Amino acid sequence: MFPESEYERVYTGSLINIQFLQNILQDSGINSITRDDMKSGMAAGFGGGIPHHIQLFVKKTDVEEAIPIIEKSLS
């Protein structure tokens, strides 16, 4: 069994939206990481993932603070 991650996905979207949200979250003191399965698959030599379908993760301890910031920023 895999260990539980300390990160939780809070948004999935285009690279432009992800970069925008990362900057907003960083300004609020929330660090984030991304996962791009398409890019990872191409780098490994095989296809996989959906284009422009990048996932944004924050630490589980920051989720309650991050979600309202994301919702407000995208409205």
Architecture blueprint of SSEs:
Blueprint: E1 7-13, H1 15-27, E2 32-35, H2 37-44, E3 54-59, H3 63-74
Antiparallel strand pairs: 1-3, 2-3
Structure notes:
- This protein has a single domain, classed as Hypothetical protein rpa1041 (Alpha-Beta Plaits).
- It contains 3 helices and 3 strands.
- The protein is an alpha+beta fold.
- The protein has a 3-stranded antiparallel beta sheet.
- It comes from Aquimarina amphilecti.
- This is Putative signal transducing protein.
- InterPro entries: DUF2007.
Mean model confidence by pLDDT: 83
Q: What's the helix-strand series?
A: EHEHEH
Question: What is the terminal-to-terminal distance?
Answer: 39 Å
Number of domains: 1
Radius of gyration: 13 Å
User: Could you tell me the strand content as a percent range?
Assistant: 15-25%
Helix content: 40-55%
Assigned CATH class: Alpha Beta
In terms of structural class, how would the helical and strand content be classed?
alpha+beta
Oligomer: single chain
CATH superfamily: Hypothetical protein rpa1041
Secondary structure tally: strands: 3
Largest sheet: 3 strands, antiparallel
